[in-house]
Amino acid sequence: MLIPRYLFISLAGDKSQLRPIRMKLFFLLSYYNIHFTPFLDALAQIEGVEIKVGLLNPLAKFRPGYDWDAYLSSDTYIRIYENPKLLTSEFLRKYHYIGFLGLVGESILYRTALRALYFTNAQVLVFSEGWKQKSGFSNFSRKLALLPFNRKRVSLFAVGANAYDDYKKLGMTKWKAYRFGFTVFPPERDRHYQARISEEVKFIYIGQLIERKRILDLIEAFERCANRNDKVSLSIYGAGKQEEAAKELVSKLKINNKVAFWGFVPSKELNSKLGNYDCLVLPSEYDGWGAVVNEAMQNGLAVIVSDGVRARQIVQEGENGFHFPVGKIEALAHKMHLLVANREMLYVFKNKSSKLIIDYYPESLAKKVHQLLEAKIKGSEEPTFESSLKVLSV
Questions:
Q1: Given phi > 0 = left and psi -120 to 50 = alpha, else beta, which region is 352?
Q2: 253: domain range?
């Protein structure tokens, strides 16, 4: 008896029970990425889906504060770094879809992507951020590396604003591209969030204190906002080379009583504190995504981001926050002042954030991706979505 191409049998739970597997996926990652694997874990929970995830590096300390052994104990994850020879064409041919987080990073990842494209019938899925545009040799070498992949069998899940444009500029015109975003572990609290506004408007910054993050811009903008509004404060979480310069600027501007530095705080602990704040501000020169935006919105914060933050695609201008041009301190100060001066607007923004982010919860993204991939397998018309998974290519 012949088994149909898209029907596999897998043991699930009770070894005496058979579960039909309609879709087999293999993903190859450089490391266990906490902003991508929650989506993979949710996808693996969908009936009829079998997922294996290969890890190229043992970066168990990528982020402190997580029980990495517990995550990696799942048989979903394969430690490729212990047996690189596993990635043969024969191994890859078992899967309908082969996905990659990035494409032109490590050589083994790139070689495996080529093998998947030329020695299997699998559809190739590329989940990728864009990059800060540069001229010269770096773009030329990236274009050469990508050239073999400019085929209709490749689909791009573009992480962040402009990611698809970055690939299109390098000639990847045959790909079908979909809007995607990184995600984070869902909050443990009840998701039926209701905003609260205290007497003092509390701004928060979370991230490294380095030049690229433009923390000094934020401090200057906050000082201008604080001069016009007495009931405001700014909490800064993070550490880095500009920490001393930031503290000196706060002293120089005489706003020590309104700005607090908290240093580095582990993600889980910090996530429990977010609900005490009103608005996240992220003024970065460039962020390929910016998962702290997800965390803030999940906890019901309004968000102000620079146009260098690619996660701005989930911040709707005038609905749950604002965008401003990188480096424009007065523009940032004005956006902050608007929220302080209009508490009703701040209240609306906070409630809207908690609703908009649901579309980027791991299970929401997984459900949409599953529907999309199932349509591709069946050769039927693809479902259409707004927000996440919206088709970007024409």
A1: alpha
A2: 201-358
